[in-house]
Amino acid sequence: xxxxxxxxxxxxxxxxxxxxxxxxxxxxxxxxxxxxxxxxxxxxxxxxxxxxxxxxxxxxxxxxxxxxxxxxxxxxxxxxxxxxxxxxxxxxxxxxxxxxxxxxxxxxxxxxxxxxxxxxxxxxxxxxxxxxxxxxxxxxxxxxxxxxxxxxxxxxxxxxxxxxxxxxxxxxxxxxxxxxxxxxxxxxxxxxxxxxxxxxxxxxxxxxxxxxxxxxxxxxxxxxxxxxxxxxxxxxxxxxxxxxxxxxxxxxxxxxxxxxxxxxxxxxxxxxxxxxxxxxxxxxxxxxxxxxxxxxxxxxxxxxxxxxxxxxxxxxxxxxxxxxxxxxxxxxxxxxxxxxxxxxxxxxxxxxxxxxxxxxxxxxxxxxxxxxxxxxxxxxxxxxxxxxxxxxxxxxxxxxxxxxxxxxxxxxxxxxxxxxxxxxxxxxxxxxxxxxxxxxxxxxxxxxxxxxxxxxxxxxxxxxxxxxxxxxxxxxxxxxxxxxxxxxxxxxxxxxxxxxxxxxxxxxxxxxxxxxxxxxxxxxxxxxxxxxxxxxxxxxxxxxxxxxxxxxxxxxxxxxxxxxxxxxxxxxxxxxxxxxxxxxxxxxxxxxxxxxxxxxxxxxxxxxxxxxxxx
Length: 615
Ligand SMILES: [Ca+2]
Ligand SMILES: [Ca+2]
Prior knowledge:
Blueprint: E1 2-5, E2 20-24, E3 28-29, E4 36-42, E5 50-53, E6 59-65, E7 72-79, E8 86-93, E9 98-105, E10 125-128, H1 164-169, H2 171-176, E11 181-184, E12 188-189, E13 195-197, E14 200-202, E15 212-216, H3 222-235, E16 239-245, H4 254-257, H5 279-282, H6 288-296, H7 311-328, E17 332-336, H8 343-356, E18 361-364, H9 371-376, E19 392-393, H10 396-407, H11 411-420, E20 432-434, H12 443-446, H13 451-461, E21 467-471, H14 512-528, H15 532-536, E22 538-545, E23 548-554, E24 559-565, E25 571-573, H16 579-582, E26 587-590, E27 596-598, E28 603-605, E29 609-614
Parallel strand pairs: 3-9, 10-11, 10-21, 11-16, 16-17, 17-18, 18-19, 20-21
Antiparallel strand pairs: 1-2, 2-4, 4-7, 5-8, 6-7, 8-9, 12-15, 13-14, 22-23, 23-24, 24-29, 25-28, 26-27, 26-29
Helix pairs in contact: 7-8, 10-11, 10-13, 13-14
C-alpha cells in the first residue's frame, strides 16, 4: 500500500483540502502479459468528483467506476506492451482538486520465468511460523501504534518476536539439512486487536488475519525484510512459498472498516457459519442451500467471508497475488481454506498467476479426509460438472495414511489403498505431502513419542510421491498436542532467541536422542536431493504382506527400493516376489547403513524400520 498526499490546487475550498488517498496495487509494471490493470483508490469522498488521466504513451484509460461508497474509485487501464516505465498522472476534481502520481516500473530481470522458479517434488519444503522460529531483529518485536502490542514469550497466544530476518539467518542451517524451500505462514500485515479464541485473548501471530495485502507485517520486518529474505534464498539456490488467504480477511482489514460495496462480503440475515462439508461440491444429490452455506458461510465470526464473485474484489485479490509474486520474487503459493472459496474465482486467479509466471507452483489447502475430496479440488480425472485447475492440494488423506501405516496394525494396507486411488489425480506428484502442520497435533506426539515410529513416518514422507513438507522443529523432536490450544504445536524453536538457555540449531544444544534423529533426517533428506527416482520418479508398489510394505521409485536410469516394517518383530522378505521392481538388479546399497545388500537372497528386515536401498 502506498499513501499519496493530495495537494489541493485551491487553498480556499474547505478544511478537508489535504487528505490521503491510498492506491492498490501500490505500483505496477510495464511488460506484464495481461495488459489490463484496475486501480482501486480509497480516500474521503473521492468518488464525488471527476477523474482525468494525463496522456501517457502506451497507456489508455478504459473506464472509471464509482461504487455506492463514494470513498472509492476504480480506474480501468490498458497498459500496452509499448508502454515505458514512468509515472502516470491523474487529475481529480471535486470536493478536492488533486493530482495523483502512479508508478509503472520495469519488471525484474527474468520476466517472471527465471526468477520465479516454481517448487516441484524434487524439492523439500520446510514450514515455518515466523513468529515462533527465530528472532533476527529485536527492534521490531513491538511496533507502537498497531492495535495490539503484546509481546510475551511466556504467553502462548501472544506474539513472541520471531521474524523474517530470523528465518533468513537460518537459511544455511536449513539448506544443510536438505531443505530447498521455505514456506512461512502468512507474512502480510495482521493489524488486529486481540481476539477471543480458545478461551483466551489471542494475537494474530500466525498471520491468517490479514488487514493489508500490500504490507508485510512490520513485526516481521516489513516489505524490505521480505524482499531481502527471498533474494537471499534465491542466491543460495533456495525457493520461497507464500501463504495466501482468499476466503476471508481479518475483521479490521482497512476495506472491512469502510466497505466499498454492499456485496463485498458474503452476507446473511444473521451470522451463518460454514458447514465445512466439502461433499457439497461433488455430491450429485447436494442442495443449493448446503453449497451456499459451505462457500458463503463464515469460517469464524471475526473473519469476514469475502464474496469472490464480486469482480472488483476479485481483481483486487488477483492483482495482489501477481504483485506479491513480482515484487518479492516468490516461487509458489499455498492457498489457505481453498475449499471455502468460490470455485470459478479460484480457477481465474490460478490462470492469471500462471500466465505471468509460467513456472509458479500453486497448491490449495483442501482439508479433505478422502482421496475423492482431495482430487476434486485439483486437476483430476473425475467426471464432475466443475473442474478445478490448481496444480495440487495439501494431501491430507496421505498424511493420515502415512501416520496409520506406522502406528496401527494393518495400517500399511490402508496406505497402499490410498495410494492406489492416485488414479483420481491428473498428477499426484504435484500434491504437497506432510505428516503435520501448524493446525495439527505434532507427529511425534501422535506416534506416542516413539522416535523409531517417527523415523518410519519420515522415511515414507521423503520417499512417497509428492512435494514433501516438514514442519519446523520436528528435526529436533519438538512435540505436543493441540491441547489446550493450537499454540501448543507452535512453540518457539529452542535457540531462535538469543536469551534461550539451549540452542537446538547447533549439535551442542541437542540431547543425544535429538542429535541422532537430526543426523538420520539430514542423511535421507540430502540423499533425496541426489535421487531422481525419489524426487520425480514413478512408483511401483506391492500389496503389503504381514503388514510389511515394499515399493519402488524409479526413472529410466535410477531405481530405489523402500521397505517399511512397522511390526514389533523382524520380517523376512523374499526378493522373488519383487522381480518387476528389482528389474534384474542383484545388488543394492542401503543408503542409511551404507551396507551392500544382496538382492538374490531372502532379506531380513528389522522390526520398526524403514529401509531405503539404492539399486
Ligand atoms: Ca523480532
Ligand atoms: Ca467462503
